[in-house]
Amino acid sequence: MRRAGLIPLLCAVALAIAAPFAAAEAWNLEQLMHALGKQRSGRASFVERKYLAILDAPVESSGELRFRAPDRLEKITLEPRPESLVLEGNTLTVVRGERRHVVQLSDYREIAAFIDSIRATLAGDRAALERTYAASLAGMPNGWTLTLLPRDPQMAEVVLRITISGSHAQLRGIEILQADGDRSVMEIVPERVAR
Amino acid sequence: MTRRLLPALLVWLAFVGLSVAVVSQTRFTSDLSAFLPASPTAEQQVLVDQLRDGMVSRLLLIGIEGGNATTRSALSRELARQLRADPAFGVVANGEPVHRERDQALLFGNRYLLSPAVTPQRFGVEGLHAAIGESVDLLASPLGMLTKSLLPRDPTGEMMQLLEGLDGDARPALVDGTWASRDGQRALLLAQTRAAGSDLDAQQDAIAKVREAFTTATQAQQAGDARLLLSGPGVFAVASRATIQDEVLRLMLVSIALIVTLLLFIYRSATALLLGLLPVVSGALAGVVAVSLGFGVVHGITLGFGTTLIGEAVDYAIYLFVQSAPAGERHDAERRPGIAAFWPTIQLGVLTSICGFATLLFSGFPGLAQLGLYSVAGLVAAVATTRFVLPHLLPSGFAIRDVGPLGVQLQHLLVNARHLRWGIVALALAAAAVIHVNRDRVWNRELAALSPVPAADQALDLALRSDLGAPDVRHLVVISGRDAESALQAAEAVGARLQQLANEGAIGGFESPALYLPSQATQLARRASLPEPAELGRRLELATIGLPLPAARLQPFVADVAAARERAPLTRADLDGTSFALALDSLLIPQRDHWIALLPLRAPSDGPFAHAIDPDRVRTTLEATDARALFIDLKGESDRLYSGYLNEALLLALAGVAAIVALLGLVLRSAPRVLRVLAPLVAAVLVVVAGLVLAGVTLTILHLVGLLLIVAVGSNYALFFDGSESSGGPAPRTLASMLFANLTTVAGFGVLAFSSVPVLQAIGGTVGPGAILALLFAAVLSRP
């Protein structure tokens, strides 16, 4: 139960954070990775909608994403309830209300592999990314889509597909499609643009 | 032989007969119980109970090293499988989710009895609206992924409440699905024995079973290079018992062999040797008998210490033989003046020693009081045997080698040695200065200093413990109740306060038996908050207005609540087969006429109060409840306990010194003479303490006993020198007898210095050098 939940969560965080630090003009996966690897830190705001079968309407949350090289990722949710999620090194800390959960990433082997690959992505390591996913880049530089399909069967039982869309150097959104049909859509606005 | 032999011999034989009878009935122990208080306070009682039977005392920490990660993980699974099948073990944890399904089924099935959030307000329209709204909001969070599938049955999120309440402990990392150390080089398991930690035979069996299971597992896995590491209180206790038993026997044999060799060399007579051992045997018997009668049980440490008494008791026979029976004086009548000459000195020496040791009898520390009683009884018996039995047993024509020539040589040495007196004064002053400079770290105030566990084993224990997420209980809140129900109710009241502290970050969290089994009163109150199905349905219609979750989708919830209204409250029996059963049993404990609930506290891992719990703050919070809860810092408590003993022992030792001074003053009736007798003893004690301090040893209560022994043994030497002042120094034979006595003492104690039991080593390392120094100093400081 817990295991299943963390995978989309980490996908969303890591990829969302990677998003604003996007790439150069000439467009292929190699160069995307290279551009991402150059980023040392950054912030972006996000709005995430989850479409769940059990609910009549999507649930929406919004807040801020932060990244600091080499390994600190933060997702600070402000609405509808304040929540902070910090991944540093091997430790994932979730604080919600008065509750605080600390999880060792290495306790969840498939997620550890997953997050390592995300970190490798941020560092520009394409090989690590492609160890975990079959990655394909489609579209034009002004409207492209990166599709990631999990290679691990256990992961694939939870996450069907991750789609990252963007235009030119800018990532615009991440969509995660879960195996049960529920999906989440995250829109990302870099703060330097928003201000 | 004389006719006066008969009564003395009969008395002695009766004594031996009685002693053997008592000793055969005596119970010997080697656990650390002698180091626990005889009349504990409430806090100390909890400490003692926890050390003996507490959940911590039943933990076995297991590590597997060698091979690769996959092999270690496979061994861990196999070992855990075998141990789980063994009724000797209550819980065997290695990271595998063995209980997870049953645990979660129990929690989910009884969530409306267990969840602290269940109140009438929560099941009103507004409460339901808020709770369901929160659950919907949670779906927006990553944590919502955990609860999504449960939403139709549990829209108020009680399961999440429960998991959060129980999800406290930091757990080790998983490698290949089983626990591993942080560096991944060691697989980790935790086993809890059903037997109490103080049941050493059961602990020994459990340890043997772990080793056996590991051997089977390595054979099955063909993992010959894998090693098993074992630690924990039970392992320590069993190992200590074995060490103490082995060592006491071995040390006794070695010192007997050494002393016998020495005596044979000195006496050149087997008869003399046998007769010379009589006072020793009598002293040892009397010591054991006295302790057995006085305390009901004799500690192994006391026995080990007893071996040292061999070194001192044998002295009396040496004085008798050497000083009263030189070669050539073949008749009893000629012998008597010799006895008369040295007897008063010996008498005073023994009285001095008794003054020193008798004060230990008043110690509240049973271990120390045992040593005191053993010494006093042993010395009295040894000297009485020497004085009243031994002379009558000497065969006519009894002779030992003439030591006169050696004594004459010693006299020459003595004359030269006296030039060194100012050197000794300087040495003593320097030693006093060293002690003064280091006065803050002379004494070790931690109980652990007395532990017979070798440092390497303690280091392994620490490593395993920190890898396993430190499941050692240090801070405890203890609550008593007439019965289980009232203890649980009190635990609930205190738990509410502790939760506030946890929210403020003053404590990291706490465990409570009421988390696993709420009191019946609380469960019934929660059940009474649940509305009947039709009413709940009506309220849900209203509560879901404005939420994206229509009431129609919550029919499973209505059905579950209806079932919960019919459910009987949980009892202890319902927890069988889950990991909560043992957790509850170790936290809710029946005593003779009441129950106690233990609430272990965790220090915060970060924040302003990281790794430290402020006892005053917890106590203030607890005082606000009427549960009369005790807050206990187990380590602080045990160190305070020991520190109290140490202070007490120091005071008693000082009182002993005062008694010795008074005794000497009374007998010698001359302040300068008292000073001259005491000077070499004080100098020897100072130099030994300074030497230990310089060697980096911090002194324990057993070193203090060693210092008393230096005074006891040394007083004989000093008194011999003092008593011979009028005749221009000790006679050659007296000098020789002192040298022999000193050699046997050093042999007896010196052996202890090589013991691996720290407490015995402490005594050996103190008295061995101290006895030599006391003789040297007494000789050098004596007046020509």
Structure description:
The complex is a heterodimer of chains A (195) and B (784). By secondary structure, chain A is an alpha+beta fold. Chain A is built from 6 helices and 11 strands. Chain A has an 11-stranded antiparallel β-sheet. In chain A, a hairpin with a 2-residue loop joins strand 5 and strand 6 (99-104). In chain A, helix 1 (2-18) packs parallel to helix 3 and helix 3 packs antiparallel against helix 4. In chain A, 34% of the residues are buried. Chain B has a domain at 5-30 and 237-452 and 638-781. In chain B, strand 11 and strand 12 form a beta hairpin. In chain B, helix 10 (233-267) packs antiparallel against helix 28, helix 12 packs antiparallel against helix 13 (332-358) and helix 26 (671-694) packs antiparallel against helix 27. The chains are: A alpha+beta (195), B alpha+beta (784). The interface between A and B is medium-sized, with 37 and 30 residues.
Topology of helices and strands:
The complex is a heterodimer of chains A (195) and B (784).
Chain A lengths: L1 H17 L10 H10 L2 E11 L7 E10 L3 E8 L3 E6 L2 E6 L2 E6 L4 H14 L3 H7 E8 L2 E8 L2 H4 L2 E9 L2 E9 L4 E8 H4 L1
Chain B lengths: L4 H21 L1 E3 L12 H12 L5 E7 L3 H16 L4 E5 L6 H10 L1 H4 L10 H16 L3 H4 L10 H9 L6 E3 L2 E3 L6 E7 L6 H22 L5 E5 L1 H35 L2 H26 L1 E3 H25 L7 H27 L7 H28 L10 H14 L3 H17 L17 H13 L7 E7 L2 H21 L4 E2 L2 H4 L3 H9 L4 H11 L11 H12 L12 H9 E3 L4 E8 L12 H9 L6 E4 H35 L2 H24 L6 H23 L8 H21 L5 H24 L3
Parallel strand pairs in B: 1-8
Antiparallel strand pairs in B: 2-6, 2-7, 3-6, 4-5, 9-12, 9-13, 10-12, 11-12
